[in-house]
Specification:
By secondary structure, the protein is mainly alpha-helical. It contains 5 helices and no strands. It is globular and about 35 Å long.
């Protein structure tokens, strides 16, 4: 049982960090991130959380280009995660 609690706590901490990191310098990015991160994210799987963490390491303008469809990341998992952000 302690392993499950640690896993849930770790996931909650990681999602909290992602919410904080999603506060970027561009209003245009906020329009994608705020609706996504304001909902309940407890059902996100490990792969998606990791992809979101990787997205948050990217430059603002690169993220904006990807979200607006001007360009696409080479990594398909990042592309899938961008789709999740666009759908909200």
């Amino acid at each position: 049982m302690p392993q499950i609690v640690a896993s849930v706590t770790d996931r909650s901490i990681r999602i909290g960090r992602l919410r904080w990191q999603s506060r970027r310098g561009l209003l245009e990015l906020d329009r994608f991130f705020e609706p996504f991160f304001s909902r309940d994210l407890s059902d996100l799987d490990e792969v998606t959380i990791t992809a979101l963490e990787r997205l948050m390491e990217c430059q603002d303008l690169e993220l904006l280009d990807w979200l607006l469809g001007r360009s696409a990341p080479q990594d398909s998992q990042l592309g899938h995660t961008l789709e999740l952000l666009r759908r909200v």
